[in-house]
Every structure is written in C-alpha cells, then in structure tokens.
Amino acid sequence: MSQICGGIFTSHVPGIGKAIAQNLQDDPYWKPFFDGFKPVHQWLEAERPDVAVVFYNDHGLNFFLDKMPTFAIGAAPQYRHEDEGWGIAFARPYEGAPDLSWHIIEQVVAAEFDPVTCQSMAVDHAVAVPFELCWPGDAPFPVKLVPIAINTVQHPLPSPKRCYELGKAVGRAIESWGGNEKVVIFGTGGLSHQLEGERAGHINVDYDKFCLRNLAPDPEALLQHDTLDIVELAGSQGVEILNWIAARGALRGSVRELASNYHVPISNTAAATVLLENRDKVLA
C-alpha cells in the first residue's frame, strides 16, 4: 500500500524564484531562508518519495476571477511551469501521476467534495518555487506530481475546517491506493502577508508563530479562526495558510516536527519552512 512519509510546508514567493534564477542563495538577504532547506534536502535524500501531492493556490494561470473553482485537482500526464510575468521560467517538466490523481478524485467525490478535474493544467510559482527549493539543479524531478488547487483569491473562500477535511479525505485516498508509492505532501504559500491596499506589507509574527507552534501537535487549533478572521490576522494573501491546513489534514499518522525555519521578511512576506514526519500510528 502507498505510504505518506511526511509533509513539507513552505512559502512560494515569486521573489524566491528570481533569487534561485540569479544564484542569490548565499546573499545575506536570502541566506537565512535558503538555509532552512538543508534538513529538507537531507530528509528527501533519505526518504526518496515517489509522488508529491501539492496543495497550493493558482494565481490566475489556470483560473481567473470569472471562473474560480473552490477546489481543483490535476489529472494530467505532465505539467509545465508557465511564467505569470515575474520573469522566471523554469524549464523542467513535472511528470504527472494520473492514475493516482483519478483515484484521489474518485475518493474525495465519494466523500462529498466536488473538485474540478483538470486533465490539462499548467503550474505557476506556487508549485514551481517549492520544487526548485526542494530539488535544486537541472536533473529531472525525482517525484511525480498531483496538484490540488484551493481558492484563496475569490470570495467566498472555503473555511479552514473544509480545507482540513479535504486534506483528510485526500490522505485516506492515498492510504487506500493499491500502489506501493511513497508520497510526500506539500502545503505552499504564506505565511502572513498583504500585497495591496492600506495594509500592504502587513505581517503578523504572533499569528505566524501560533500556526508554526500548532501545525504538528494540534492542527485543529488553526480551525478556530474562520476565513475572514485569517484575512484580518494574516493579510489578504496570508489566507494561503488554507493550503497548509489542507496538507496537514492529509498527514494522518503519528506526526512530529523534524525542522522549522521562520524568516521575516522575504519580499514583504513572512517566509517559513516546516518539515513534518508522518508515521503509522501502530509503529510510532
């Protein structure tokens, strides 16, 4: 049976992609953030997952304000990164896992979720930047991709509880998959930031640290705030924490934190990286 080995939670700021493209990883401004990936690289080398299931939000590449699904799941044989105007274009393609994607889709529909299914899909910086951070270089990515997009842009947004329950349904689907793949879960985006309006540049360190402190041991603590509360606390883009909440829901075993890094600011964003190990409850 498939095994969910752990979760990687990280910011997906486009500026990180530009820093990678310009080889600025050791620049004093960027180094504290990039250093947070050293334990992630070591863990990935040891675990060698086969598939990455990525909870993220699309930034207008596939969906715009006139057509914005609450949840969308990719079921394509391959995905490519397309630049949305940030001046970064990563060439490496992403091999899909369509059989697993369809199994997840069927199982979450049976759990009374209604995702849009995408047999053709491009991915933006919300997927590309975390992949480049986790697997730097030019070699083909060692994992297949199942992308799951969550609406964090057009109101009404899904509630934190709904996203958490979606993640749990995805976790159950992966566990029931008949293959023998090792799966890593990603939650990308955040933490607190707002890019426009009177509160542009808003960062809430207290809320960020509340999320980081509770992500592994008590994820349901993050459900106490509704979506509008999160917008108030973390900023209009800080609501991307919904992706983290969904990803945490998919980790259904005995979860423990292996590494955590928090750095403020990166391009007006509170940037963070968390690595969680997920093990079967019987073996924990």
TrEMBL record:
<keyword id="KW-0223">Dioxygenase</keyword>
<keyword id="KW-0560">Oxidoreductase</keyword>
<protein>
    <submittedName>
        <fullName>Class III extradiol dioxygenase family protein</fullName>
    </submittedName>
</protein>
<feature type="domain" description="Extradiol ring-cleavage dioxygenase class III enzyme subunit B">
    <location>
        <begin position="7"/>
        <end position="269"/>
    </location>
</feature>
<dbReference type="GO" id="GO:0051213">
    <property type="term" value="F:dioxygenase activity"/>
</dbReference>
<dbReference type="Pfam" id="PF02900">
    <property type="entry name" value="LigB"/>
</dbReference>
<dbReference type="InterPro" id="IPR004183">
    <property type="entry name" value="Xdiol_dOase_suB"/>
</dbReference>
